[in-house]
Amino acid sequence: MSNGEGRARKLEGALLEECAEWIWEQIQEEGLFVPGELIELILTTERELNLHARPLPEIAAGVAAAFREQSHLLSPTDERAIESVLAWEDEFLGIAGIPRESS
């Protein structure tokens, strides 16, 4: 995982891709299958909606609502996957030294 000055870094570009890949690996170890594309979509959607600095339950609800509005069918499993992705994103941000509110 890349390391650098946390204050100047944002979760975007190559770092966002690295985060998504890392999350995918962690989720696989949990025994869940979440496509990498969905992980990236969750991460980009929370930023597009400017939710990334809110508490995880609010982010998860906002992302799920946005997916429903875009006609994505969501099951309870999908919502758990969104929450799991966000929890692992928090872990990644902590390791990378990036505060969630500035990510």
Please characterize this protein's 3D structure.
It is a single chain. The chain has about 100 residues and is mostly helical. Helices cover about 65% and strands about 0% of the residues. The chain is built from four helices and no strands. Helix 1 crosses helix 2, helix 1 crosses helix 4 and helix 3 packs across helix 4.
**Element-level helix/strand string:** HHHH
Percent helix, as a range, is 55-70%
What is the CA–CA distance across the termini?
16 Å
Total strands: 0
C-alpha geometry: globular
What order do the helices and strands come in, and which of them pair?
Blueprint: H1 13-29, H2 36-48, H3 56-69, H4 76-96
Helix pairs in contact: 1-2, 1-4, 3-4
Question: Outline of this structure?
Answer:
The protein is an all-alpha fold and 103 residues long. It has helices at residues 13-29, 36-48, 56-69, 76-96.
Kindly list the characteristics that best describe this protein.
103 residues, mainly alpha, 4 helices, globular, disordered N terminus
